[in-house]
Structures are given as C-alpha cells and as structure tokens.
Amino acid sequence: MKAGGERARALELWAGVECTVNRVGHGYFDQLRQNGHETRLDDLDRILALGARAVRYPVLWERTAPEGLARADWSWADERLRGLAARGMRPIVGLVHHGSGPRHTCLIEPGFADGLAEFAQAVAERYPWVEDYTPVNEPMTTARFSGLYGLWYPHRRDDRSFVRALLTQCRATVLAMRAVRAVNPSARLVQTEDFGTTTSTPALAYQAEHENQRRLLGLDLLVGRVDGRHPLYEYLVEHGAKPEELAFFREAPCPPDIIGINYYVTSDRFLDDRLEGYPRCHHGGNGRHVYADVETVRISGHAITGHHALLSRLWERYRIPLVITEAHLGGTRDEQLRWFVWAWRGAERARAEGVDVRAVTMWSLFGSFNWDCLVTCEGDHYEPGAFDVRGPAPRPTALVALGRALSEGREPDHPVLATPGWWLRPDRVLYPASAGPRVESVNAETRETRARPLLITGATGTLGGAFGRACTARAIPYRLVSRREMDIADPEAVERMLAALSPWAVINTAGYVRVDDAERDPHRCERENVLGPSVLARACRERTIRLVTFSSDLVFDGARREPYVESDPVSPLGVYGQSKALAERLSLSACPETLVIRTAAFFGPWDEHNFVFQALRALAQGESFVAASDLVISPTYVPDLVGTALDLLVDGESGIWHLTNRGAVTWFELARQSADLAGIDRSGLVGCPASRLGLAAPRPPYCALGSERGILLPGLEDALARYTNERAIPIAGGGIARGRDPCASF
To answer: For residue 447, how far is the Cα from the chain centroid?
Structure first.
C-alpha cells in the first residue's frame, strides 16, 4: 500500500516484549527468562486484550540455535508464532536483540553476518507467512556498548572495534533480509535504533556533531548513503573499514520499509567541558577535551528533543515510514502513563504535519530487569511495564487500560494525566544552566492544567506527611487534611470535604496508632480505627471515589511460623489489632473497591518517631538500647511503602495487599542490622523477651507478612542501607553518624 494510504489509517498500537539476550564475559543475561514470558503461553491472550495490532516478538538466534541449526529447537517459537497468528496479531520477528549470537560467533568477526543470514533463512522457511523482520535490534547501540564502551561481549573499548561491530551487524541485516526475501519476496525490514540527540557547550560542538552523525550511521549504511562525501566516511576508513566494504552497502542497499524509533528520556545527551558541578562518574573525554556527559533532561535551560521533533527530522532525512518501536519509562506509574501519552501525542502531531507515522509501541510489556546497570550484572532491579510480573501471574497495570483506550480511539482520562511528566517540569533539573545555546520547551503540554486532587487524611502523622511528599514529587495534586479540618468519623464533615474538593481518590492515613494505650482506651480506638474508615468507605462508594486505607500485621495471632499472606484468617490478640481487623471487613463490605494495605513496623527518613531511628540514636550516643528478641516482624521503609501504594492506587487495585520490605527479623535483629549498616557500635544493644518490656497489649510472637498477590517492595537490607545513607543520626559531641557512602569507591 502506498504511504498516503497508510497515513489515512488510524495510528496503530503495537506491543513489544523485552527480550534482550546479551553476553557479558562467559555468561548470558536473558530477559525472557527473568520476566517469565519464556514459560507463559497465556501471555498471548494478555497481549490480545491490550488491543495491539502488531507485536515485536523474539525468535532469537542465541535461544533457538545456540549450538547451530542442526540442533535448533523450534518448539517455543512454533507454539507462540502460531498462537499470535491464531489471535490475529501480526508478529515483527526479531532475530538478535542486543546480542552477539551463539558462543561460536562474535560481533567483530565476519562469520556473524553469514551465520545470521543462515538462521534468518531457516526462520523464513519455517514461518513463510511472517512478513515483518528486525534481524538486528539497534545495531548502533549494540556496537557502542560492545565495541566502544566495553560493557557487553566482546568488551572492546576502541573505535576500530566499534566500527567493525557496526559494519558486521549492518552487513548481517542486509544478508539476512536477502535470505528472507528469497523465501518471502514481500518481507519487510523494520529497522530499530535509539535516536537520541547530543547537544553541548560551544567548545564541544564538534563532538556533538560527530555523535549526532554517528547515531544515524547504521541507517545511512543500509540506505546506501555512505560514500566519500559522507561526514563519517574518513572516520570509518581510518578505523578499519575497507572502501570495498562500504561500497557493498551502496551497491546493494537495503533500506528499511519502516524505521523504528526507540527513544528514552535519557537518550538525549549534553556535553559540558566545564566539569565543576558534575559528579565524577559523568566525567569522560575524547583525547582532545575532558568533559561531562549527562542527560540533557537534567540540564537547566535545555529540553529533550521529544518524539514529535525526532519523527519530523527522520522523515525529512529518509522519507521512510516511521514507527515508535519502544515507548517505555522506568519509574512511577503516573510518569509511565504520562510518557506513553506524550509519545502518542507526538506521533499524532507529526502525522498531522504529513509525516508517515504508522504506530506507537507499548514496549516492555512484562517489564525489564537490571537496565539500571545496563544488564551487566545480576540483580533484582525491576521496571514494570503494561504488566507487573512480581506475583503468581502478570498483573495488569494502568498502562493496559491506557493502551486499550488508545487502540480503540478513546481519549485516555486517568486523573494523573492532567499534569505534565517530570521531564517537562522544573524539578527535572539537577545541573545549572550551561554556556550552550538555550533550548526552549519542546511542547505546549508543559502548561499546568486544573486537576482533581487526591484527598489525604492524617496531616500530622508519619504516613500522611510521607504521602504529601510523594505526591509533590510526582506532581499529583493533593490536599492533606488534619482531623480539625475533617473528622473521618463524622459523616457530615466527610461529605462536606468530598463535595468541596471532588477528589478522584482518598488516602486514609488517620487513625489511632498507640497500640498499648488502646487497651486502656478501646472506645476512642474503635471510633478512629473502625468508624472512621467505614464512614469514608460509604462516602467514597456513593461518589465513585477510590479509597486507600491502612491496616496492620497485628490482625494475626502469631500462631504460625511462616509469613502471613492476604487470605490467611485474622485472629487479633489485642484491642488495636481487633479494631484494624474489623475496619478491614466493614470498609470492604461498604466499598468493595477499597484498597486495604497491611503493613508493619515502618521507619523512614522524615521523622524520628520510629524504632530504627531511636535505636541508632541511642547507640550512636553510647547509650544502651533494649529490644525484644522473641517477636518476629516484617519492617517497612516508608518511601517504599508510599511509592508502591500510590502505584497500586493508580493501577486501580482493590482488596487487601501486604506491603512490607522482604525479610523477617526480631526487633533486636532489626536494631543490630541497622547499626551494622550505619557503622555504629552496637555494644550497647541488649535483647530480651517481650514479656520483660512491660507492654500493655499482647503481641503475636510471629507476624511477618508475605504476599500471595505480589512481592513489590525491595528487601529489608536494601531498604536499611538506603535509610542509613539518607538519615543523619545525632551522636555524642554534637556530630552525626551516617551510613557508608555507596559512591565513595568511585
């Protein structure tokens, strides 16, 4: 079909599964194994429900034929490609995704190109109905990471290896498409690349120009543009490219049928020859200048390029149809929604101006692992995508509803979309204005709009203040109220506040929190912990407002010795636990959409009224500190709790969720571990049975919390390490104690 006919179609939603299989040393990192898609055939139904028309899908060389075609195992690809076809979804088959091939291959050896072509032919012969291929994902990016930066195999750090890796991958793409088209002449090349833009201070303009030309070099090779007049021709020859190699691409060009744009908030870079003000980890150089290389989004007075401008520039240069093939942002759910809508709006604007943009791809459907370290080491850093895989089955996030709305031509209406993403807000800036040319905002969407707020109760409490901080950081409009402003146990006061603010959700952090005093004051505990949430639940149900409220590990009696999960029966021992258990039941009965979060023993950097701070301060000042050694709990770091609770609210989750940091310790062990991480002498720490502490309320001997719905918070040690690095602990003599600086070794 002609380009004009394609433009007449509605913008399509595509989907993509993060499938990187990259090699580091002798090991491979496999995203399909980490995100679990490797074993979940029913994921195809999840993709179908999203409304995507096409799916970037892996049939990877390293996974399918690691020991050669003679021993290839096609069973996984057979089942899934046929499953996609049966569901009416079009696969864009990827053959190498940031990889270097099986162990007998390498990006800087000529055998890679011939081997991939042989594999591509086998794929085409087995699936002759497949029409769209990406033989090599992001060849430029992979060449930089493998040949120039030394991050991935073969771990080279020189221009010669970079040039060789790029030429090898581009030649492999040409040969692979030639082999595929010998089987299926109508097969299309969907060539993806990360197309960030580099800007700089005036002294580094030459380096910025080089990097901007280099970003396009893979495409320029494929379309046959690299001749003696090309800005990087001499660079290529100087670093090992033979003239006849470059002539190969001009004589047998293989232009993409579709150019795929992979664009991230960190793709745009800024180079500054003034090193002051930048952390050392950003310092680098090119042999001529030493400079800082940072994300443009963090520089005052500069803005990122944005999807609209990038699409327009690439269309002007190549006149080849375009697709945003990766639209993903790691971070909070509200920002993920804003980023995807921003990409979609950018594509719509470009189409309105005559650019042939076909689709936007919801990338990383099942999330991605360890891209914080560029997939160079094992870890548990996870960024959810349209689905969160940290539970027994992938859980749809708010991105699923967003994708479905866009695919059906409906306007997305989530309340968090009323404010701009962080990359468009002033708080994005980490570094001062540069001496370079000023770039104004790229999009009119930066203007503030009137938005329905969140209503947060408990203004004087730890959680209420923490939610206020989090909402400010996430640009979620909110109103934080005290009991004087709205008594949650007074239906008329609640009704007045809801009518005045018209919030889209209520987060209830108010309540009676003194566990031992509750034994002596049960009526007040019941009023604040039972009546209040019940009143809120009824009012929220009547106005179709979402409600989040908090419960406790003390709803359990501690009779078991393994972590309690959400469906375990409650059996509280004391008045406080009884009030929380009753509040859960009444709130969910009055409003089944209520999100009830059970948590425990929280500590955080913004207040001193928590066990960890009190223990560390006493020990740092040389005092003794007594802690129960026979009560097992699951402590919770407040920033983790609040951030995840907001994500679940944005996702529209309901029912009971357990949110604690992974781990089960006694109070004594918690104090000891915290002191060790903070570097504080713990010789004054004393453990004793809880029976000797004079507690009025009975405590369950074991009330660690697990989850059958999803383990969403990091481990306890990770949380304590962050806490001790962020929180100053007063010590004797007027000083402070802090944890070891994790960057001190850099």
So the answer is: 25
From the CB of residue 446, how many other CB atoms can be counted at a distance below 10 Å? 15
Token digits of residue 301: 């007075």
Domain 3-446 part of CATH 2.40.30.170: no
| Active-site residue (options: 28, 264, 382, 576) | 576
Largest CA-CA distance found in the chain, in angstroms, rounded: 89
- C-beta contacts of 347-355 below 8 A and 24+ residues apart: 347/11, 347/307, 347/308, 347/311, 348/11, 349/308, 350/307, 350/308, 350/311, 350/312, 350/315, 350/322, 351/7, 351/11, 353/312, 354/7, 355/311, 355/312, 355/315, 355/322
Per-domain residue ranges of the chain: 3-446, 454-737
Told to judge if 291 belongs to the known catalytic residues of this protein, a careful annotator would answer no
Give the DSSP H or E segment for 198. strand 198-200
What's the rounded Cα separation, in Å, for the pair 287 and 284?
A: 9
Reply yes or no on domain 454-737 having CATH 3.40.50.720. yes
User: Using one digit for the tens of pLDDT, what is the confidence trace for 680-710?
Assistant: 999 999 999 999 999 999 999 999 999 999 9
Two tokens, residue 258: 């579709």
**Using CA atoms, how far apart are residues 476 and 451, in angstroms rounded to an integer?**
9
Bond preceding residue 154 cis, omega within 30 of 0: yes
Q: Measured between alpha carbons, how far is residue 515 from residues 315, 475, 554, 558 in Å?
A: 65, 34, 9, 16
d(C-alpha 532, C-alpha 671), whole Å: 34
pLDDT tops 80 at residue 738? no
Fold match between 3-446 and 454-737?
no
Strands 454-457 and 478-481: parallel
Is residue 443 pLDDT above 70, yes or no?
no
- pLDDT, residue 735, reads 46
pLDDT exceeding 70 applies to what percent of the chain?
A: 94
The length of the chain is 746
